Amino acid sequence: MxxxxxxxxxxxxxxxxxxxxxxxxxxxxxxxxDLRHACPCAKCSPMRNDDDASRTLRRQIEALxxxxxxxxxxxxxxxxxxxxxGCSSGIYRFERIHDLALRRDPDRGRPYVHGAW
Amino acid sequence: xxDSPVTITTPGSDDAASAGxxxxxxxxxxxxxxxMKRKMSMExxxxxxxxxxxxxxxxxxxxxxxxxxxxxxxxxxxxYAVGILDIDITGPNVPKMMGLDGRRLHVENKRIxxxxxxxxxxxxxxxxxxxxxxxxxxWRGPIKLGAIQQFIGDVEWGELDYLVIDFPPGTSDEPxxxxxxxxxxxxxxxxxxxxxxxLLDSRxxxxxxxxxxxxxxxxxxxxxxxxxxxxxxxGSEFSVAAPGGKxxxxxADGEGNFSFTLxxxxxxxxxxxxxxxxxxxxxxxxxxxxxxxxxxxxxxxIVSEPDGPSAVAFSKVVAAILDQLSDGSDGxxxxx
Lengths: 117, 336
Known about the structure:
A: alpha+beta; B: alpha/beta; two-stranded antiparallel sheet; elongated
């Protein structure tokens, strides 16, 4: 099933979370901790394959000091979030961000396969 | 090193200056100084080149160098100042495709000057340093790394609009070194062919890009389909046995001309991989035997047939890349 992705018009960085406004009029909030736990980089992703490791990742993220990220666009399809502490490697596609907004699993239940290293 | 301004003195020793550094210390200082100079040079080069595009594939034999040279030539055809850096140290073949076989690099004041190929495209390749083309380069990691940094930092590129960087297949040291050495890389173009094994490896490249923090500009499907054209009796219909047990039925037009495309491997694999990963699909390039001949003869297909189907396909891929790199690529997203 192909889902039409609404266009993200506005992203407001707040203290603990970000507010997303889409062109279809919908508005969502994504907590930074959820965003960071869903980091798609090759270092963070494998940790979500296993429940214990995933919880460890979550605890590591929650222990980090609260901060607003610096955000950069990546081409026309993704955003990069840069943090002073913790992982800043992930390139978040707009689909992924929308999944997080809808409280859906951005990995769609698929385990990460460590292909690159 | 004659031009090294570095001297060393040992604290607490009155005759330290006259004693001078030991040969080992002097060597270390010279290496550190050369490294610093190279780093500064790489940063300057990074500023003088507006856009840097890495061309990768997970698997060998998908036509990556053909795509790299094609992109460079297509960009040059549109009037851009373009360079191509052939990082494939063990199997460099860009010079042959660019009509620069047997050329040597010009070195002046310790700076390497690139050779100029078709349409003024500047080329740097390991092939220029080989004694003969049958000599293999057997280098371990650190030597390879040094050569790559030299190819980036010691080359006099001048001002370029685009630098296309062609890598060996796979996700090894080379892209990592370049991504760490050259600032502000725009992104990677992943080249694939439609068959499953190539697509699997392309997925690795996409994942790799996320690890390197270099965005994927998009996926190009090479060897996508072979177009057969000819003449027959006007209006006649005929069937052709195509790969995969398919039958293609086609007919000649009123003047007797016909053409149909055979998907020799499969069709749409690159597009579905791009969709699966949510990265842009830049386009499909036809299977064109002319590339093989052109590669061997040193006259690229885009040069010999600038308005041919392959050149047109490349220009569409280039347009898709430029679209991705265009300013305001955030689509008007307001970030507060």
